[in-house]
Amino acid sequence: MMDYITAFWVGGLVCALVQILLDKTKLLPGRVMVMLVVTGTILGALGIYKPFQEFAGAGASVPLLGFGNTIWEGMREAVDKEGFIGLFKGGFTAGAAGIGAALIFSYIASLLCQPKMKK
């Protein structure tokens, strides 16, 4: 039960900090999302993300921080295996399943919910 509570408050804290950043600055949401992905990548490269994820579970892996770390891990493994070309291939390979699932599920949701354009 504590795993669920920890994931909830850590994920909520990440989201709250991002919301404060959006409210108190003039940063656009797209830039903040990129900052989260880059932060996850940097934390992974520094070896900080792994212990953070072990502590927070889904609270750390679900937000965009987790996507940045996934890209980093894919790049690191591809560079170890294939050399320099892995810098370009690894991130795409590691993130492909998550991106593909997001596209498929968002398409299904758009079919079921019939979204409309804002006026």
TrEMBL record:
InterPro entries reported in the protein's UniProt record: SpoVA
Protein name listed in UniProt: Stage V sporulation protein AE
Chain ranges passing through the membrane: 5-22, 28-48, 92-113
Keyword field: Membrane, Transmembrane, Transmembrane helix
Domain of life the protein comes from: Bacteria
